Amino acid sequence: MKNMIDIRLMLSKKRLIGLFVWLTVPTLLTMGIFYIFNDVTDDFSVPVGIANDSDEEEVESIIQEIGDNNLINVRMIEADEAGRLVEQHELDSTFVFDEQFYDNLENLRRTNMIESHYSNRSLAYGAIKESVGAVVQERYGLYYAKNMINQVEEENDAEQSDLETVDTLINDLIDRFNLLEYEYSYYGDITPVSDHEDMNIFLIWSIVTFFVTLFIFELIVSERRQKVMQRLAFTRYNMTKYFLYQVSILTILLVVSDLIAWFVFEFFYEQSISILTVLSVRLMMILFAYVLAVLIKNVYTYLLVSLFVIIAIIIFTFVLNPLFVTMDLGYLNHLNPLYQFINEEITVYWSVGLLVIIALFWRVRHA
Amino acid sequence: MLKVDNVSFSYRTKKVLDNVSIEIEDGEIIGLVGENGAGKTTFLNILATLLKPRKGTITYNDMKYKSKKSAIRKQIGYVPQDIALWEDLTVMENMLFFEKLSWVKKSEKELKDILLDMQLDRFDSKVKELSGGMKRKLNLAISLIHDPSLLLLDEPTVGIDLKSKIEINDILDYMSEEENMTVIYTSHDMDEITQLCDRTIVFGQDPFYRELLEREGMPIS
Ligand SMILES: Nc1ncnc2c1ncn2[C@@H]1O[C@H](COP(=O)(O)OP(=O)(O)OP(=O)(O)O)[C@@H](O)[C@H]1O
Ligand SMILES: [Mg+2]
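Above: the input record for the complex with magnesium ion. Below: its predicted structure, written as tokens.
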């Protein structure tokens, strides 16, 4: 093995820096793409100003919840600038939670709880108002329920458990909770439009690293074509053995690069996936690249096919897979080699298929 | 001793070799001659185990080609017709590369000695910067790393200047005389063949080469 590493280094001497660059590409490029995606998401969101004149923590948490909506980009402002900022079109709309707000909430006074400002250019005002309203409505519902429960308790304490009263109260509560659920789901319907938070970083990574893997294996295709390879017959290694060693070395390097990616995403992006899932998709990629490199003799054809494979995977992942699900053709999703990985499963089907192809290939050649 | 017994070969439908038989003693230098497409390279590749004969048997030092292929390969030094080198590596790196893959370990000094034997001292030049003659020398030197006893060369002196040609011929002569190496090679240069070879094998139908060699008094098998 040491000899093999030595000659790998010898052949890659000039390309050594390049090779290491390639190995960090999956992590770096993924981070880049992820960053751009998140930035775009910010661009989609509407700038909304919120003024908070209340000291209550509860109000803070309501505002925080409003900001959790990707559609809304919250900027904290002073109450007296609320009108001006909308007039100057710096913000789409503004909402003021005044000193009275919490008192109103607690005592279930629901009219004029929030002051809002918007202009004729506040295109998103309708949707924003709904969203803000939904958050407040939800809190209001909770206070309402709390109030009811207190009332029931008080009446029980007084040992005047009038069954009829309790029954009405319970029904009232149930109605109220149903209403809440309804509002809640309505609120949920408008958000997914621009909700990119589900953009899994490992999804991007798997596509990038697949590309890099195919690209690195071009080395095998171009080296195998060299005239100098006919000398391998008169060395300790025949062609198959030589390339098996070379593939092993590349595999080790790629696995190291995978672990770096895994570590970065796990600890800096807090997106976790099991290492076994990563290693299984790595095995599949190596087998895929190996089969491609064995089947295709010409370097340019190889690169072209690799590019085509990656484009096909991108189309599958972002367009066809969701389509297949809605068309009830879920099994077609497995045409995408990354499908199991994307679903955080261990990649099995494609690896088995590729191994069968390799076995067939060996049989044909040795027959 | 190399024994070739009734060997025939054809590519699909095209018959190239028809019942070739010859016995070659250790230390002999044999020239393979004949017009283009006569089958010299094909025969050499069969002797190098790279092609299997359709008919006939070959044995080297009592080892059958059919059953002892890998043992025989260790004994063979093969110099391909094309220059088979890493163009981007230096002369020495090319030597080291194949030393690492070789059955026989050689020190850097021993590798340099092989190169110096053929007047090649530009160890640190890239192959792509070398002249045709120097490339041919390196092409030969690599084949000698594992101390073969049977050297097979396909046009080792084609397209190079007279001085390099003589230097390569001297090496082949030395290998056969001093190391008792069996040398089998192809060439279109009849002067070279008549000077260097002990015997020749003529391929093809054209009587031209046969007549020419007979006039020179060269033994033909
Ligand atoms: N791989 C192949 N497939 C089919 N035919 C081949 C193949 N290789 C060689 N031939 C044919 O076999 C014949 C012998 O070829 P070979 O290369 O052995 O000739 P040669 O004597 O070495 O010629 P040259 O002097 O040009 O090197 C030629 O007619 C050639 O066209
Ligand atoms: Mg030839």
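Notes for the reader.
Chain B touches chain A through 27 residues (CB under 8 Å).
The helical segments of chain B are 40-47, 69-75, 91-101, 108-117, 132-143, 162-178, 190-196, 207-216.
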